[in-house]
Amino acid sequence: METYLGVNGRNFQRQYKEKLSDFYTWKQVLHADRYIVYPKNLGPCLTIDETALSNGELYTIITNKARKGKKGTIVGMFKGTQSSDIIKLILEHYPAQQRKIVREVTLDMAGNMNLIIKKCFPKATRVIDRFHVQKLAYETVQDIRIKHRWETLDAENKAYKDAKAKGIEYIPEILAKTKRICIYAKDIQRITGKSEKTGYRILDNIRKRLGKEPHQFVTIKEFADFAGFATEEVKEYIYD
Residue 187, Cβ neighbours under 10 Å: how many? Predict the structure, then answer.
């Protein structure tokens, strides 16, 4: 807007807020820094999640899935993630009759989110979103793989000590180090310095671009091509 209109961005922002937007006559201006509520935007299918805005401040946001990010999407936005505070505000500002129309709410595995929905929308079915289910499955597989690797290393060390005690040469069954073709979110976190959650999003984007199913793995080469890295450079950061 600043470039297109040829105006000072800060001045335009201030003028819009103070003159054009009716911000100071907005009914929710007195509590907008703590919560914003739109009861009329309630619908049968909702989503609840937490997000960090500026300066790392956490907000809990409830949205209407049917609006698909357009006007009327936000049902409520609450500062913080304390379930007791959010439950109190929802019960106060959303009539019970309106809350009864909610049939389904998508949420993550956090206990506070589950409690909010249980108390405020008791008739709604709670659905755990795919991202968190995938994350849990990937982490479990990773833990099992690392456990087996350490068991193998312990067995190899014991065999080496036994051979040394008997005065015979120890010849390992596998001379090459463990290799793998897949890349995981923790690997991407190590490579990019971003969060593990961002790593999962990158993996999802790669799957979409390549037309893969959600359950299919992403290879190191596919990630390297997507990110613009040399495959050998990426492999240097892949270790167990």
Answer: 21
